[in-house]
Amino acid sequence: MDTSDLPTKSNLIKQKKALDITKQGYELLERKRLILTKELEKYKNQASIIQEEVYRLMGEGKELVKKVNIDIGLDNFVNIANGVKIDDYIDIKNITLMGCEIPSAVHKQEVVKRNYGFYNTTSSVDEAIIKFNEIQEKLIEYAIIENTIYRLSKESGKVRERANALKNIIIPENEKKVKNISEQIDEREREEFARLKVVKKKLNN
């Protein structure tokens, strides 16, 4: 049998404590949500900047490919590009922000190793290969930030749902319980006081 709603002072103390805890929880969740929202906006701004850089680099790369196509032909360039060896790797680690794990990656890349001769190639070939390595770097950076935005958005949504549940359901329920118990205790005390007055009056007569 649930006795938590019985109009006793001990229950009133417990319900007031529970109400305080839920209010504190709501405040903490709101702070967390604001921090996550701020971080989310920061990463969105970074993503926008990097996206513009990628578009710019892609445009430059496209122009270089046109130049290479004129100089040596596209088929020859594709064969050269496929043979270029790049010693690189991506070390991805997760860092925690307000309980949300977001990716942090270090992309270490060595200098492009030329494995093609100067015969039948031009400087535009080197420029194009270097340019597309830059594009690769930016695309990796952009992918990491997009993944971070996704995770922060998801976590922010969860926090908002929990905060709304506290604000709109749990806190009002706890406030109602405190009010009901308080009113019943007050009513009982008034009745008890009235009875004591009657008894006292009878004793004095």
Task: Summarize the entry for a quick read.
With 205 residues, this protein is mainly α. Helices cover 76% and strands 10% of the residues.
Give structural attributes:
205 residues, 2 strands, Helix Hairpins, mainly alpha
Distance between the termini: 45 Å
**Oligomeric state of the chains in view:** single chain
Please report the first level of CATH classification, the CATH class.
Mainly Alpha
Question: Could you tell me the mean pLDDT?
Answer: 82
Number of helices, where a helix is a run of at least 4 consecutive DSSP H or I residues: 3
Helix-strand topology string:
HHEEH
Largest sheet, if any?
Answer: 2 strands, antiparallel
Number of domains: 1
Structural class: mainly alpha
Question: What is Rg?
Answer: 34 Å
Number of strands: 2
Q: Shape from CA axes? A: rod-shaped
- Bin the strand percentage: 5-15%
Major sheet: arrangement of strands: 1-2
Task: Explain what you see.
With 205 residues, the chain is mainly alpha-helical. The chain has a single domain (9-204), classed as Helix Hairpins. The chain is 76% helix and 10% strand. The protein is built from three helices and two strands. It has a two-stranded antiparallel sheet. Helix 1 (9-71) runs antiparallel to helix 3 (123-204).
List the helices and strands and how they pair.
Elements: H1 9-71, H2 74-83, E1 88-97, E2 100-109, H3 123-204
Antiparallel strand pairs: 1-2
Helix pairs in contact: 1-3
